[in-house]
What we know:
The protein is built from 22 helices and 31 strands. With about 800 residues, it is an alpha+beta fold. The protein folds into three domains: about 1-50 and about 55-245, Aldehyde Oxidoreductase, domain 4; about 255-320 and about 375-450, 2-Layer Sandwich (Aldehyde Oxidoreductase, domain 4), CATH 3.30.365; about 340-370 and about 460-755, 2-Layer Sandwich (Aldehyde Oxidoreductase, domain 4), CATH 3.30.365. β3 and β4 form a beta hairpin. α4 packs parallel to α5, α11 (about 395-405) runs parallel beside α12 (about 430-445) and α16 (about 555-570) runs parallel beside α21. The protein starts with a helix and ends with a helix.
Amino acid sequence: MEAQDRAAHREQEAEPPRGFGRRRFLGYVLAAPTLTVAARIGADALAPDVAAAAVPAVAPGVVPSLPGPAEILDLNDLLTSAALPTANLITIRVEPDGTAHFALPRAEVGQGITTSSAMIVAEELDLPLDRIKVTLADARPELLFNQLTGGSNTTISTFTPIRIAAAVARGRLLRAAALELGEAVDTLTAKAGVITSATGIRLTYGELAVKAAALTDTQVAVTLKDPDAFQVIGTPRSRVDALDAVTGRKKFAMDVHVPGALPTMVCRPPTINGTVRSVDNLAEVRAMPGITDVVAVSTGVAVRGRTFGQCIDAVRALKVTWGPGTAEGASDATVLQELRAAELPLVVPPLDLLTKAVDARFTFHFASNGALETNCAVADVRPGSAEIWASLKSPIVAQEKIALQLGLPPTAVKVHVTEGGGSFGRKLFHDAAGEAAEISKAIGKPVRLMWHRTDDFRQGRTHPMSTSRVRATYALGEVLTYEQRHTSVATDFSHGVGEVITSEAARLPVADLTFSETMFALTQSSPYHFGVTTQLLSEVDHGFNTGSMRNIYSPNVRCAQELVVDELARKTGQDALGFRRRFLKDERARAVLDKVAEAGRWGRTMAPGTAQGVAIHPEYHSFVAVLAEIDCRPETTGRKIRDAWTGPRVTKIVCAVDVGLAVNPRGLEAQMMGGISDGIALALTSGLHLKDGRFLESSWDNYFYTRQWNTPPELEIVVMPSTGDRPGGAGELAVAASMAAVACAYGRATGTMPTTFPVNHAAPLPFTPTPAVPPIPASPTDGRDRAL
Length: 788
């Protein structure tokens, strides 16, 4: 019987593979003292899992739209394809202690990718999750496009290479066990890091790790697990770093110990990108307690001291004569004027007696890219070499540009990627790392650079101010055309797609706009059949420090579109949700929309001044729908909390998300929660006020991100059943849909479609701006009172 079973097993393995999970791939066992493996992967990994699905039928009367560029090839597809050629350089190593080590060439900034990556290794290697050790790889220029963290791409692009490498390791361990025991491989079973023979003999992975190693690189074929057999992937798991995070043992850049690296801060100009003309009390500040060095650099005046408190005192004491910045005199009004002048024209007019139109213009103000962890880095620059520690989502660009800045070959600059406390796109840039390197070189000593929170808000990266002009024509209840002209302050894409060639290309005067246009085309798509559809980008002004933030253009573009969809539904006398269902292109989009409608009881009777709103967002082969309920009654909007902006209250959120295959549903829920908080903030409360060339906000206490009193008391996240064998994008997915749903709810509750975001932007400032000189405000002295 056992022989028959083994024969049947071999015959089954010889059958043609079924879908993605049963494809055979090639991998490598690499020459190393202990078992080390890698994937060999090519374009076959991108082949469809199954036969292409039939094109969904278009509802009767609906004017179909041609697919947009992002529906054919989106940014995530581009990043995944670019990463394939170097997948064989990413390795998994099995140690004699039975642990598996994987250096992830991405940045963990709180999104949980170290956990999901460990789960993928654990699944295919049949090793307990707590035996998987995931670290972050140093900058590796040979990886080219394979070390960029962005575009919700990490899990998508690494999913198959990690599985192949882990499957190679498992197969090699089984083979080593078979040789050790003198038994056939197919009589052995591997489970939880132990290989057991049919006679009950057990060998651990640790005992076999050296025996399974290779003297020369060896190519092997593997068959991946069928998704039906998954035991780890698809199950909710807590983060592998959760205990370290809550006990303070997790290591960030400021936790790295480098001998002699003392606290360092920078006195920054009062206006954006101002320059140092002179330091008027240099000797006096150098003589202050604890201060070791004071030096002018390209971004201001750096001070190095024994403690950060002493550095703050020195920064506040400096008297600097400043030159003009790059946005002198600019204000919200002047930037808005430039944006409106640069708007591309709408070309389809409504035709009298035949068609009508919804015509709207939306304004989205600057938003801060400041994360919970301020911008920081450690640098040790010496003659002929440099070493950098920072949270970096594009470390190859950082290494090569810092090397150029220091006049060193890239091989002389080591860049270590540390874990980061948030990003919002901020850590795509190496501003702090480059600044720390400049300071360290100038004073000839290692530095531990930390930006003050005010630096982040006033001189850090911002999400660009933009307008969206939308016109949709309709007749007899059908949408005939949809035009959207998005005009934005230029988004800085100088990080390229992770390596120095595209990074430099993105900085060229002509290529800059071309790069932005490409990013816009590869990320923006309409989920609706709205006839002839065009979405175009125009950009202005290069005087600001900008960045992609989460979702790049999507929150603003989607918010504008969903508000227009609500208006179309109203003007044609249709239910807002039913209208969306009818025009949606994809059945997966309808499924998430139906789920939030059911779970959120769409259409239920609500009190005057309160309302529901709903929105849908497709992104990177994933879909999300959000239903929001809001309270805009005076007793709510007028509630008082000290030094706070309260305003409307989102009272309920229901979110349904379909990412194809959810590697870690619990992590996915957390990502949705974070994105929802972002969307609420962008819609209602969090924006920067620009006046006289500087931003007035200076910290979280006056930049009103979603607070405890504004978070919804009711929050439900529904992870939809798997709709595929591969993961889709998730990291940024919920931001656009939640912002749009909240905006739609606000419009329905107040009876007026909002057109300026955040909606509180024009209200009187609920705070007194701190002075721009000195750039760091005085530390509060009433902390005990505020804790009561």
